[in-house]
Design a protein that fits this description.
Elements (H helix, E strand, L loop, with lengths): L7 E4 L3 H12 L4 E4 L16 E5 H10 L2 H4 L4 E3 L1 E6 L5 E5 H4 L5 E5 H11 L4 E3 L3 E7 L4 E7 L2 E7 L2 E3 L6 H5 L4 E17 L6 E7 L2 E7 L4 E9 H9 L2 H12 L6 E2 L5 E10 L3 E2 L2 E3 L5 E2 L7 H21 L7 H11 L2 H15 L5 H16 L1 H11 L16
Parallel strand pairs: 1-2, 1-12, 2-8, 5-14, 12-20
Antiparallel strand pairs: 3-7, 4-7, 5-6, 9-10, 10-11, 13-16, 13-17, 13-18, 14-15, 15-16, 18-21, 19-20
Helix pairs in contact: 1-5, 1-9, 9-10
């Protein structure tokens, strides 16, 4: 069994689980990473590739892990954010210069993050493709059975980390209590080109069906996240390119000039999911397994990376001290580091999603006055920027850009 015993087992090798494996493997922990989908080391760039909005705090976490150097050349900085409501006077602007940082965040192709993770997994035993067959939480360890092809293995560790996505099989098998509700909206995602691009400026525009975001990419491109009512989604996807662009332009306006060259359109259902207890003895949920958020303010992956930073510090400190990394004391330390960030961020994005689609005139006036107040009051802007940059409160080492 010694050859199959680890300091921890991670199920799910996506951006959060894979980054955690890189951090802990580099820190000297013995890590097993179980991932069901075979990874492609060198995917080719494309016009409409999927991108991720990373906050300034997430850049520091990735720097601490050693991943950022692989991403920097392909990252487009977000230096300013322009927030408005369609057809109304509310307007607010956030600027990195006011916050004393080189960027509020970055837009990075997901393939670059995946490639960087694969390059840095040298100290990790990666079981891929492999699927979880079953697991048992014992008093002092977790036993996990995984299958790859026709062969199976039994692994053990003091702690199991579930990073297996929003439909987490581990969370569902253990019956974790969750707050879950659908929004009745979908996120329509594609790539566009602007004839008057504003490099470094991201736009968040609230409309009567939900927020519409345009995130700057390289070469004058923008990644579009268009929130639409579910009963509208099929019709929007079915539009030809000219009709799609005309409808989008009517909702966004001409701050970027004329939008053209829409890429492949995809739609994703939106929901809120928050676990009531992200950790139990011998088990921790991170990333989408613990929380799935509305995309307003772009907090989903960033919240997962903050999970990772806190958990990595707790596990490394416990192992280096010769203590049990999966006992009640370890989980209490993790909860202290995370505080209420998961719940606060989830409920804040939920509030924003509902607040800006409610047509009630007094509420509409109030939110426009709120945006105007945000634009006029630097302390309020600073508090909001700090929160959404992921640098508020007590920060673990990785979130300060420091190695473990």
């Amino acid at each position: 069994m010694a050859g199959n015993h680890y300091d921890l087992i991670i199920v799910g090798g996506g951006l959060v689980g894979g980054s955690l494996a890189c951090a802990l493997g580099a820190a000297g922990l013995r890590v097993a990473l179980v991932e069901a989908v075979a990874q492609t080391l060198r995917a080719e760039p494309s016009y409409d590739e999927r991108v991720i909005a990373l906050s300034w705090g997430s850049r520091r976490i990735l720097e601490g892990i050693g991943l950022w150097t692989e991403l920097a050349a392909g990252a487009e900085a977000i230096r300013r954010i322009h927030v408005s409501e369609r057809g109304h006077f509310g307007l607010a602007r956030l600027d990195c210069a006011e916050e004393g940082v080189p960027a509020l965040g970055y837009v990075v192709p997901a393939r670059l993050i995946g490639q960087a993770i694969q390059v840095r997994l040298g100290g990790v035993e990666s079981l891929c493709p492999a699927r979880l067959v079953g697991f048992h939480l014992g008093a002092d360890r977790v036993d996990v059975e995984v299958a790859s092809g026709n062969a199976s293995r039994l692994l053990s560790a003091p702690v199991l980390v579930a990073a297996d996505g929003g439909d987490s099989a581990i969370r569902q098998r253990l019956g974790f209590q969750v707050l879950e509700r659908g929004y009745g909206h979908d996120a329509i995602i594609t790539t566009l080109t602007a004839d008057r691009p504003q490099p470094g400026v991201a736009f968040e525009r609230f409309t009567d069906t939900g927020p519409l975001a345009l995130l700057p990419m390289t070469a004058g491109r923008y990644s579009l996240v268009w929130t639409a009512r579910r009963d509208e989604t099929a019709g929007i996807l079915a539009l030809d390119d000219a009709a799609f662009l005309a409808r989008l332009q009517a909702r966004f306006g001409y701050r970027l000039g004329t939008l053209s060259r829409p890429g492949r359109r995809q739609a994703w259902p939106l929901k809120l999911l928050l676990t009531r207890e992200p950790a139990r003895p011998r088990l921790v949920l991170i990333g989408n397994a613990a929380h799935t958020l509305h995309p307003v303010a772009g907090q989903g992956l960033n919240l997962g990376l903050r999970d990772l930073a806190a958990l990595a510090q707790v596990l490394v400190d416990r192992v280096r001290a010769g203590a049990d990394p999966g006992d009640a004391a370890a989980l209490a330390a993790y909860r202290r580091l995370r505080g209420s960030d998961q719940e606060r961020t989830g409920l804040a994005t939920d509030l924003l999603a509902h607040l800006f689609i409610n047509p009630w005139p007094p509420l509409r006036l109030g939110r426009n006055l709120g945006l105007l107040g945000l634009d006029l009051l630097p302390p309020l802007r600073h508090a909001l920027a700090t929160r959404f940059m992921g640098i508020a409160g007590h920060l673990p080492r990785l979130a300060r850009g420091l190695p473990l």
